[in-house]
Predict the 3D structure of the following.
Amino acid sequence: MPEESESWKPQSLLAAAYRAAVTGADGYRAVRSALRVDRGILRLGNRFAPIGRYREIAFVALGNASASLALAASEALGERLTQGYAAGPVALPESVPFHSLVVPSPVPGTSQGLEASHAVLELAAGLGEPDLLLLLLSPGAAGSLVEPPTGMDGKSWGELLQRASRELGSVEAGLLARVFGSGSTGGRLPSLTGADVETLIVEEGLGGALVGGGPTIPVTEEERARAAALLGRLGEPARGLSSSSEAAGRPAVRTPSRPVVVAGPADAIRSAGDALVDRRWFTRLGTLSTPLPPAAAAALLLERGEAELRALGGRLPAIGSRGSTASQGLAVFAGVTLGGPEGALPAGAAESFLEAARSGLSRRESVVALLPTHGGEEGPGAGRFLHLDAKGSPVRGGLPMRAGITDVGSVALLLLPAPAG
């Protein structure tokens, strides 16, 4: 087993992996890299434009990483920014001189979410040619963009989407929000502003272009057909919903550029893996991203771990590092969202994941961890892990993380230590 050892304590190892995961997918760093000004040229993701082209530059930062995204935009553009607005679970730091609203729930339909949506629409409508609107989105943005359909109140709308997430899956619930919601979702935003719209996205691996209901991407007829079929599976609460084939508002002045994903689960997993390689662990990717519910996600992680061991002939490989040829063990990573609505872990999901994994752990000293990159289902410090001690008894622990840094879903990790000797 690893070097710590008479009684292996994996917390320091997991903490290093967790820090690396969050740093690798940090929303601030991602936007600062994608948004730059050099010699009068403005970099916007994968596009470049003369900054003098724009009369006003405004930003909207939404979702779980909104504070990081807004801070990055503010520091990248400084006094060139004329307007800004952020909505998410964490208020803007005082150093960012723009308005923000705390939206505690990522589920659409809350009073705070509706207030934020109205503010976004008002800001967008006040911009015209030749202005620029930077749309900075992260998981949870739907709570501040997707308004209820006509004839449905916010509370009922949120309950319907949460039920859809439980019964149909998070991807399907997101599709319903995109197709049937009102506000700026479903490609409506460009028709509500005369400005250029550029979108940078932090995402969970389930379709970055659709974070926040896809405010710059029109709904396709295929999506409408799929969403209509889903309604029949929800029964009475969904009756009466319909989607218009036309986006609300005037025709867009310009066709917006395709959204650019600046951070995702691959960034978190790659960085966490590098941190463990530095500590002489052999790393493998189990799956990049899956929306499976907790028990199924845990079973998949354990299955991938066993598959990797079989592929290695049942023996942990030796790797050279720091003058040693000894491997500390095998680490298998997976990106998971555990079947919750965009930007939200379902209540009790972390505990359910660990319990399901515990029942499948057969190797002593094995460790399974769930590291939610937005800070956890119970606020900051909700990263959790479980391992079996030398007697096969479960040992639990927690890991701290500050909320509001990023959100690329949760990183699930299985550690299979090399045997002693």
Remarks:
- The two ends are 8 Å apart (CA to CA).
- The domain at 26-263 is CATH 3.40.50.10180 (Rossmann fold).
- Confidence is low (pLDDT under 50) at residues 245-249, 320-324.
- Residues 294-311 form the longest helix (18 residues).
